[in-house]
Design goal:
The protein is of the alpha/beta class. It is built from 22 helices and 8 strands. It folds into 3 domains: 83 residues, Four Helix Bundle (Hemerythrin (Met), subunit A) (Up-down Bundle), CATH 1.20.120.140; 196 residues, Rossmann fold; 147 residues, Signal recognition particle, SRP54 subunit, M-domain (434 Repressor (Amino-terminal Domain)), CATH 1.10.260. A hairpin with a 7-residue loop joins strand 7 and strand 8. The radius of gyration is 25 Å and the shape is flat.
Length: 448
């Protein structure tokens, strides 16, 4: 996500750093380039204009231009203003003092609303809540069936009715069923349209007036750019809502919607979807996102993902093995599988400070991970525990079994041995350092 914008901004600030002392003219030139980068990223024109004015005003002050590191001061200002642009701090969901909390999802067709309802239920359950899904989209063919399937697959209670039943009647009966079930969160998936129309808004206003939901969340597709912002503005004027759930953010290389929507509508992004899996919905942190855009990483999210997916006991065991350089291919295979549970490998690498813009020749993709995994799985148990057994004929057999060639097998063995040597050399240093909980460090030096 934000790949194009992130790359452009990092190039601009790299040139700024090389100048040492800065003048107002240097800042002017850099801000013109930042302005173009933001406009190319499909950020709202007025938002860009106001953003550049604020950054420029702060950047040409004496305390910045006469500081020891003026370029870094400018980057710090851009980081702070980007964070403010997206909402400054995390905007959390609010819950009713007396359950159940009713959350109503609205949006256009194709925004990912029905899938988001299931992901939201999954997310809230992981925090200890007891969610209940209501399918009230009676217009889109198979919308109710889709939500029921997702609810069944994830063991989440669900209610709906015949598609001919009015949405308000379904929602009212669904809340009653949720109360009887002992659920403390009710998520209503309402009908979307291909465009905003009076009938659609009237139905939503009717549900809102009758049921008084505690949270109305607008679901928008990040990849539609300014169209998503325009949709959000229309919904705010006609219905009003509490916050935004932005879907397909992982596929949005530009980022215009995420950077514009808070400034245009005044409504915060509360949650973002960064993948297709049920656990890909996560809270939106403006400060972390700004840091990612500027290539500064996002170590907090990385550690949170590790804590959520990695067994702590296994992590401690792996940490000990890494310090002693005793890990095997079996250990590394386990590390890879844990990393894959945390998300796409390129996403994880970009969360590491300083690794936001890797050279093309050392890019690591999920396909690379799958190929390495296939090679390791084609080894015998003895070979995984003791790679020294792998002679020429064994390498050929492993290559055939994994659908690769002997060159790739040789390269993997070479990298593995180099990693073990490196860890042995720095063993004493690692003994003094505490690794992040999760032990995911086992994979990264290997790829280096």
């Amino acid at each position: 996500m934000f790949d194009n914008l992130s790359s452009r901004l990092q190039d601009i600030f790299s040139k700024l750093k090389s100048r040492g002392k800065l003048t107002e003219k240097d800042v002017d030139v850099a801000m013109r380039e930042v302005r173009l980068a933001l406009l190319e990223a499909d950020v709202n024109y007025k938002v860009v204009k106001d953003f550049i004015a604020k950054v420029k005003e702060r950047s040409i002050g004496v305390e910045v231009l006469e500081s020891l590191t003026p370029a870094q001061q400018v980057i710090k200002i851009v980081n702070e203003e980007l964070t403010a642009l997206m909402g400054s701090t995390e905007s959390k969901l609010s819950f009713a003092p007396r359950p159940p909390t009713v959350i109503m999802l609205v949006g256009l067709q194709g925004s990912g609303k029905t899938t988001t309802a299931a992901k939201l239920a999954h997310h809230l359950r992981s925090t200890g809540r007891r969610p209940f899904l209501i399918g009230a989209d009676v217009y889109r063919p198979a919308a109710i069936d889709q939500l029921k399937t997702l609810a069944d697959e994830n063991n989440i209670p669900f209610y709906s009715d015949d598609p001919k039943t009015p949405p308000l009647t379904i929602a009212r009966a669904g809340i009653k069923a949720a109360n009887q079930n002992g659920s403390d969160i009710v998520i209503i998936d309402t009908a979307g349209r291909l465009h905003i129309d009076e009938q659609m808004m009237h139905e939503l206003e009717e549900i809102k007036a009758e049921l008084k939901p505690h949270q109305i969340l607008l679901v928008v597709d990040a990849m539609t750019g300014q169209d998503a912002v325009n949709v959000a503005q229309s919904f705010r004027e006609k219905l009003d809502f509490d916050g935004i759930v932005m879907t397909k953010l992982d596929g949005d290389a530009r980022g215009g919607a995420a950077l514009s929507v808070k400034a245009v509508t005044g409504k915060p992004i509360k949650l973002v979807s960064v993948g297709e899996k049920m656990d890909s919905l996560e809270p939106f942190h403006p400060d972390r996102m700004a840091s990612r855009i500027l290539g500064m990483g996002d170590i907090l999210t990385l550690i949170e993902r590790a804590q959520a997916t990695v067994d702590e006991k296994k992590a401690r065991e792996m940490e000990e093995k890494l310090r002693k350089a005793e890990f095997t291919f079996e250990d590394f295979l386990g590390q890879m599988e844990q990393m894959q549970q945390m998300g796409p490998i390129n996403q994880l690498i970009k969360m590491i400070p300083g690794m936001g813009k890797l050279p093309k020749d050392i890019q690591v993709s999920d396909k690379d991970m799958a190929r390495i995994k296939a090679i390791i799985q084609s080894m015998t148990s003895d070979e995984r525990r003791n790679p020294n057994l792998i002679n020429g004929s064994r390498r050929e057999r492993i290559a055939r079994g994994s659908g690769t060639d002997t060159h790739e097998v040789n390269q993997l063995l070479k990298q593995f041995n180099q990693t073990k040597k490196m860890l042995k050399q720095f063993g004493s240093m690692q003994g003094k350092m505490k690794m992040p909980k999760g032990g995911f460090g086992g994979g990264f030096p290997f790829f280096g």
